[in-house]
TrEMBL record:
Species: Mizugakiibacter sediminis
GO molecular function: DNA-binding transcription factor activity
The name this protein goes by in its record: Transcriptional regulator, MarR family
Residue ranges of every copy of the HTH marR-type domain listed in the record: 32-130
SMART domains tied to this protein: HTH_MARR
Short name of one Pfam family: MarR
Length: 148
């Protein structure tokens, strides 16, 4: 008979597992809603949102802002351009992309659906709990990035 030994757990490991599970659940629910309006995934949504907030950007700028590699961002921009959601702006030495009217309309639909999904995700928590958790995780992320 083989005795199984318990694997020691730590609060740090529990935190990693919980954050990963929460991210997966929330992202899955948001991406489901985004797909309903024709947005392929969260990165596409955030890219559209960034272009909507900041205006025209290069592939390199988008990749850095979204923490994606340039090749992935180049493919994403090409796909969005083929779909008519963004366009390459003329007269710039480095290719800059901006939202089209169709892209702005898609972004508005995606934002509404994404916001609804997020509200459902946090419906079991009080507004104060959401603010506290968000603040704590923001500080934690800041510490991680400054320690890197």
């Amino acid at each position: 008979m083989t005795m199984r030994r318990a694997i020691p757990r730590s609060h740090e490991h529990d935190l990693l597992v919980l954050v990963s599970q929460v991210r997966s659940e929330m992202l899955g629910r948001v991406e489901h809603e985004l797909a309903e309006v024709g947005v392929e995934n969260y990165i596409v949504y955030v890219g559209l949102k960034r272009l909507g907030m900041q205006g025209p950007m290069t592939v390199a700028e988008l990749a850095a802002a979204l923490r994606q590699d340039r090749a992935t961002m180049r493919r994403t921009c090409a796909q969005l351009e083929r779909q008519g959601h963004i366009r390459r702006l003329a007269g710039t030495r480095t290719a800059r992309y901006g939202l089209t009217d169709g892209g702005r309309a898609l972004l508005a639909q995606a934002q509404a659906r994404g916001d609804q999904a997020l509200k459902r995700c946090v419906a079991g928590a009080s507004p104060d709990e959401v603010v506290q958790l968000s603040g704590a995780l923001g500080r934690f992320l800041g510490h991680l990035r400054s320690a890197a």
